[in-house]
From TrEMBL:
It is found in: Nucleus. Its main location: nucleus. InterPro entries: B3_DNA-bd, DNA-bd_pseudobarrel_sf, Plant_B3_domain. This is TF-B3 domain-containing protein. It comes from Heracleum sosnowskyi. Coiled coil: none annotated. Residues 4-93, 257-346 form the TF-B3 domain. SUPFAM superfamilies: DNA-binding pseudobarrel domain (SSF101936). GO terms for cellular component: nucleus. Keywords: DNA-binding, Nucleus, Transcription, Transcription regulation. GO terms for molecular function: DNA binding.
Amino acid sequence: MVGFVVANFSCFFEFGRIRIPKKFSKRYGPVIPKDIVLMVDNGDRWLCEYDHMSGRIAGLENFMEFYGVGVYWFLVMTYFGKDEFGVNIYSPKCCEIFYPKILNSGANIKEKDMGVFKVPLNYSISEENDGALFFCNVSWSDFRFFRLVIRSVHLNWEYAKVHVPEEFHSIFRNWSNDERITLWLLNRCWEIEIVCCNYDCAFGIGWSEFLNEACIRLGDTCIFECTGKRLEFNFCFERQEDNDFIVVNPDLCGVKFFQILFFRSLDHGKIVLPMSLGDNFFNSLSTVVEFVMLNNETWSICYRRNPPSFIFIKEFASFYNLKENFIVVFEYLGHSRFFVRIFEQSSLEISYSKLCKASKRDDIFLKSEYEFGFVKGDSIDVIRFRNIKGIVKDYVRMVDKAYKGPNLLSLWKRKHIFGRFVIVLGSSPIDHKLNNVYIGNFERSFSKDWINGPVSRLIAHKRQWRVIVKLNRNMCKLGRGWDNFIGDNDFGCWRRMYFQFA
């Protein structure tokens, strides 16, 4: 799975110059067939053609026109293999647009078959009585839905009047007073009493409760979709902010947004979140959030609510070698966890291996700003790992009371370094030839790979030292050769050494 970004600028859209990145075409172009399928999150599927010579996708402009993709909008396209591409659409406010399932019923649509269906989403709305908005689909017999703009009368009155246009009369023909309709919002449903009068109807008992529990407010546009069953609708709603319509996904999980990294973001070490995400989303996050990368690495990042932003990201940016004009896409997984995707300047997604490319740079670890303190107990030592910015993490090491050796401790920076551990030299590291080094229970796989024999090699500054290493479960002992290694490198007390399994 690899993705790329398509940016819609006025000159690109006007002259039909929207192309996929050259790096992507060079790598995957030969295996992509001519006919491809664009899949939107709501289940819509579009058939387009891929031109191997120019790298253009024929029909992409019509796709963007239908979904109302304007200037400065972004498409994140993910290649799933064979002929399938997933498409996520982002507004200029950097938030993903959640399109309801009602757009084309998941049917395959070719360019020649679109007809009136090519009208952009933002311009296919006509206003009727009582401020109701109705949206007409190309196939009345198979699929129908209508819209209702919430006015003050809908919030204050016990009954909300809904005007039904002529095209929808057949839907209400068999309805009678005092019946109840079922509205489905995600996995939850509400039953609302209806009152019919000619070709209009009103929502009665249950309507006010539905508005409160679904957090519907003044100005929202409610979308009612016929499910095919009598007296049953799927429901979603749009929220208008700054004269732009943003479709709201009531489930916070799955919310996506992106940010373009500028020099100021990297220099100040923070990423500001789009304000259009809303207060409900901002308030749901804890002060420390977790980033989950494609290579399954996890990072703990500080979150500040005012203004909403991820702060102290310099080490994260340095580790993944983030540069100006990189695009970072965030998907909310729930419980303050985000799935993070990174796209380079050429718009191609960066696929980091399990041992991150940036991890080869030794200067990353030399620039880490940390301090260490020790809280001693009767049977355990707590290693306090404190970031200069104030983040505190405690690592606990069981201590053998009978052991009288030097205070030689190791730390495993699991959140930041893969395949490495840290040794902090004690007060007298050279006085003892045998020094206990604790690796950690969560890295047994690495301790198994470490040579448990007469000699292990330590490589530093293009030189090699041979040190005897003995393993006992997750505790290893550095014996003969360790003092030479310390002396030759002039390591003093309380120095930190970073070890990587070669």
